[in-house]
Amino acid sequence: MTQDLTALSSTRDRNLADLLRSGPVVPVITLERVEDAVPLARALVAGGLKLLEITLRTPAAADCAAAIIGEVPEAIVGIGTVLTPKDLERAQALGARYALSPGATPDLLAAASRSEMPFIPGIATASELMAALAHGFHTVKFFPAVPAGGIPALKALAGPFPQARFCPTGGIDEKNAGEWLALPHVVAVGGSWVCQPSDIRAQAWDAITAKAKRAVMAASGG
User: Which intervals of the chain form a coiled coil (predicted)?
Assistant: First the structure.
């Protein structure tokens, strides 16, 4: 059984690494209306951001994710705000490519460790990172990144855990994304600045595409 879980972990790590190469900036998306899902995804993809996180924070979230998966094949859809094993099952049933959580309970880590789906558990402390690593998850979401201590805290965490890779999220924006991405142990950053709920409600797709392009430039040091 241990060998099986180790093999699963290796496969997940490889698949997740492949996904993260698609883009170092992951828009964290909260959608209230299904009709906004596809045009938003197309706007982000047009701006160069293909790796998306659809959060399970609204009643429409699952239908929005399904619409994007079905109609925007260029988008790589992940499900965020995964809080329970049942949420993880929902993400898999929707056809999501990966899943993320803001934190991680023992039950969620155990369920995710038995799954083939790439999963990025949320951590904010050394103990939480140790639990994630013990379950075979070497890439984690540092959340909430800025309130949890920012770059100094992440550097401190990375010291004793050189095998860990981080996707910081929370308080990251166009101005500081490049600074985070310059850290050697950071593989991506997440943030909602690219697609603010107010822009989505206004259907400001051109503005969102422009923000996505600037995010790509910021990530590349431009």
Answer: none
